[in-house]
Amino acid sequence: xxxxxxxxxxxxxxxxxxxxxxxxxxxxxxxxxxxxxxxxxxxxxxxxxxxxxxxxxxxxxxxxxxxxxxxxxxxxxxxxxxxxxxxxxxxxxxxxxxxxxxxxxxxxxxxxxxxxxxxxxxxxxxxxxxxxxxxxxxxxxxxxxxxxxxxxxxxxxxxxxxxxxxxxxxxxxxxxxxxxxxxxxxxxxxxxxxxxxxxxxxxxxxxxxxxxxxxxxxxxxxxxxxxxxxxxxxxx
Length: 236
Known about the structure:
- With 236 residues, the chain is α/β, with parallel strands linked by helices.
- The protein folds into two domains: 15-68 and 164-234, CATH 3.30.190.20; 75-161, Rossmann fold.
- It is 30% helix and 20% strand.
- It has helices at residues 6-13, 23-32, 81-89, 99-106, 122-126, 129-132, 152-161, 185-201; strands spanning 41-48, 60-64, 75-78, 94-95, 114-117, 163-167, 173-180, 212-219, 225-227.
- Strands 7-1-8-9 form a four-stranded antiparallel sheet, with helices on one face. The chain has a three-stranded parallel sheet with strand order 4-3-5, with helices on one face.
- The protein is globular, with a radius of gyration of 19 Å.
């Protein structure tokens, strides 16, 4: 078992392990037990009752955080011609409209957070699957990252504003970031609510019984705090 420092143990001592906190109370406590000197990322870990082995129990969707994520989002766009020009004008950090850029990514360069592509570029993007796939960067229509040329500016804007993709992992959990500890408790609460409601709306057809079993909020260095998944603000 990993050992923890004195400050971590003091922080953990302020958390009631068996209590299911109201969402805003959990976030307020998380901010109060903060003990590092840097702006930690706030994370949500959700345990579901789904079976990841079943095709009708998968979740993969997106949500735009109302208050962003507190970080600069780097976007690369796979497009050609006028759409590539439109992507640059809309604020894309990189535009992969040349063999040189594609080869650079093929060799392992992934210094970006989101990859967006037009449908006509998916043949090219497909060749980069071994690089983009394992890093969760592969453009996907369901995630809103494969779009027609006339939608490219909107897709870039949403990505930079704090749109995140969430998906079920092999252990039936979903993990996302919802902002920074420097956010107000109300801002983090709004982001948490947006995420949980998006998951509920994405409930797969094969889900039965207890869908969301546990929600935990934590930050980069702090202990986790359990949130009541049936709190009024987190239900549809």
